[in-house]
Each structure stands twice: as structure tokens, then as C-alpha cells.
Amino acid sequence: MSLNVSALSTYTDQISGKLAKEILLASNTIKGDIVAIQYGAIGNAVQLNSIKSTILGTTAACSAFATSGSTVIGATTVTLCPVKFEDSVCIDTLNKYYLSFMAQSKFNTEDLGAFEDVFVSNKVEATTKAIDQMVWRSATAAPNYAGSAATTGNLVLCNGFLEAGYLASASTVNVAKTAITVSNAYVIVDDILTSVAANASVLLDEFNLYLSPADFQSYLSSLRSLNLYNYNTQAEATTNILHPGSIGMHIVKTNGMDGVASGTALATKKENIVLVISDESDLNMDIWFEKNADAIHTRTKIRVGTGFVFPELVVVIR
Q1: Domains: count for the chain
Q2: How far apart are alpha carbons 73 and 60 in whole angstroms?
Q3: Residue 104: how many other CB atoms lie within 10 Å
Q4: Contact at 8 Å (CB) between 283 and 187?
Q5: Whose CA, among 74, 89, 143, 145, lies 20 to 30 Å from 258?
């Protein structure tokens, strides 16, 4: 029994564009619908356009037409980062896994699928996780949000949402962070809500507080200890919950923030925090066999960027 590596090249050549989109769409940031997405960006940067109007009334008397109020058209620039993920695996190593896979397939009543499906799915899953962390935690220089280890590997390829929030600190609402524990989580979130009410009250009707998975778990445990969490043991996993006592503050579990220092967070409306994704021509995933190296190579290329439409409506907890 031998491994036919040509099946992998054929498989990915047919749907390379679809695979690249699947990688992006499978991420918690997009699949979870926790931020706004702008697709089809072309070039190295895009503008997030905005408009603000101030309306001033006057007494209803007969007179010449007089303009009142103001209209301000603005834009925030988002720089797109070209990112490439490359990997190689020796065919001998892969062949050992393939033989084990074939043995399982013969005796397992569950259909394990084609080997090339399993191999590609593994690469998609790993790349998806890397991209998810990159769009939240990465920083092209030493990260300004304290307590992060975003100084190596994938986390230096772009500026993620946390770094973008810090770089816009002249406009954002800035709150000093406190490490979150089960005993203080509810109080800390309440304090953040107070800061939002005082400095960006327009958010109160509906906005998200983005927490790392660890801090989100501490928050849920805090609600349970205070008898504020009514849960159903048969329900699906909780990833988004309305903060008790708030008008519309949603606490959101954010996988891409896994690994940040406890207490690090962002708060804003979903529509205000934007992940920009390039045109399909810049998205692809390829897998091929190189005979000279006796190895299978994988390459995924994407272009993404992060930003905020209205930085003044972003609360950065750092």
C-alpha cells in the first residue's frame, strides 16, 4: 500500500480559492459574527468612510434660507498586510500516518473520509487558528498593550485590533486594566460599563466587550457565584451573554485574544470594529509534492487589515 501524493495536488488545485475562503470563514472572528467584515479590498490600504451631522433648528419665521448645523465627512485608513503561511512535511513521515489512517479506515465503522480531505482539513484548521490570533494580538513592533507576548512568529506580521486600539489612543477611551478573577469579574465589567456611560454613552444601547476565553470563563463563573447566570445544561456552549443590569452590553468570548494578559479587553459596537479582507485574487492555498525534496509543501496567502470607523467610540482596556 503506497501513498499517492498526486491526489493532494489535484485536490487543492481544483478548489484553492475556496480553501482560502474557508480558512477565513472558519475563524471565530468571522464565523462567530463578532466584528464587521469588509470584503473585496484591492491594494495596500482601504478607507473606512464615515459621516457625522449636527442638526440645529431655528425659529419658524419667514426669512431667507439659512444653513445651520454641520456635516463632517471623514475616513480611517486601514493598511492591509500580505501574509504567507508555508509548511513542508517529509513524505516518509506522511506515509507513516497514511498507513495508520488506512488501517483505521478498514476497521472503523465511521467514514473517516478521503486522506486528502483529512490532510487539507488539518492545514485549514491550523491556519484558521493562526489568523484568528493574528487579527487580534499581532503587532509589527513591540506590542504597546502591556503584558502580551506578541513579539515573535505570526504575531509580528500585522497590527491586530488590540494594537490598532492603542495606536489610536489619542482618540479612544482608555481604561487601566485589572486582572480578572472569579471574585472580581462582575465588578470589573461593571466599572467598564461605567466608563462607557461616562465617555461614549451612544454605545449603551448595543455594544460588545471582547474578552479572552480565560477571562470570559472567569466572568461566567462570577455570574454563577452571584446567582446571576441562569444556564441550561443541555444548551450549546455560551460565547455571548448580556451583562446583567446593562442596557445592551454583550460580553463576547474572543478566541483570537487567547494568551493576552488578564484584563485586556476592547469595547465598541460590532459595526465599528472592522476586519478588512482582500479581493479573492489575493487569497489562495496550494499543496504540491516536490520530488527533489521528497516532501509535500503547503502555502496559504491572504491579505487582511484591522481598524475602527470611529476610534472615539472604542474603549481600550489595557
Answers
A1: 1
A2: 28
A3: 11
A4: no
A5: 89
Q: Closest Cα to residue 39, out of 267, 272, 268, 281?
A: 281
Q: How far apart are CA 153 and CA 219, in angstroms?
A: 30
Model confidence over 141-183: pLDDT tens digits?
766 665 555 457 788 888 999 999 988 989 999 999 999 999 9
CA-nearest of 307, 281, 50, 302 to 167 is 307
Domain that includes residue 183, residue range: 6-49+76-317
Residue 150, domain member (yes or no): yes
Instruction: Report pLDDT digits (tens) over 184-212.
Output: 999 999 999 999 999 999 999 999 999 99
Give exposure, 20-54, as e/b (b: 16+ Cβ within 10 Å).
bbbbbebbbbbebebbbeeeebeeeebebeeeeee
Tell me whether residue 57 is in a domain.
no
Q: What is the pTM of this model?
A: 0.81
Strand partners, 12: none
